[in-house]
Amino acid sequence: MILSGEVEVLYMKDLWIKYKNENGKIINREYDTIMDFIDEMESDNIDIPMLDYEIISYIFFENRLNSEYGGTIEGLLEHCKEIVQ
Fold first, then answer.
1. Contact residues for 84 (Cβ-Cβ < 8 A; gap 6+)
2. 37 exposed, middle or buried (CB, 10 Å; 0-12, 13-18, 19+)?
3. Rounded to 5 degrees, what angle do the CA atoms 59, 20, 71 make?
4. Which of 2, 5, 22, 31 is disulfide-compatible with 36, CB 3.0–4.6 A?
5. Residue 3 within any structural domain of the chain
6. Is 19 within a domain?
């Protein structure tokens, strides 16, 4: 709820991903920046098999014109690295 005089601040996300994990469960993730995604994928906190997870769809900058379907997390990671270079 927004009280009088308060402003609700909405932050755009750089990346939204929908993918299937190893059990076929659909997972939705969002990242504030592309670098947040890259940092997470390159950290020691992820399972290596996660790089092989099937992507259902992903959207850059909350713009449907910047959306894609299919591929793997690893492929998306490489694409994101190219974007930030």
1. 34, 35, 38
2. buried
3. 55
4. 31
5. no
6. yes
Helices then strands, each counted (H, E), the chain: 2, 4
**Structure tokens, 41:** 């994928």
* CA distance between the termini of the chain: 40
Global pTM? 0.76
29-68 pLDDT per residue, tens? 999 999 999 999 998 877 767 888 999 999 988 777 678 8
- Whether residue 10 is contained in a domain is answered as no
- Non-local (6+) Cβ contacts of 52 within 8 A are 72, 73, 74
Q: Is residue 6 part of a domain?
A: no
Give kind and range of the element (H or E) at residue 37. helix 34-42
Helix (H) or strand (E) holding 82: helix 73-84
Domain count, the chain: 1
Residue 61 belongs to a domain with what CATH number?
A: 3.30.1490
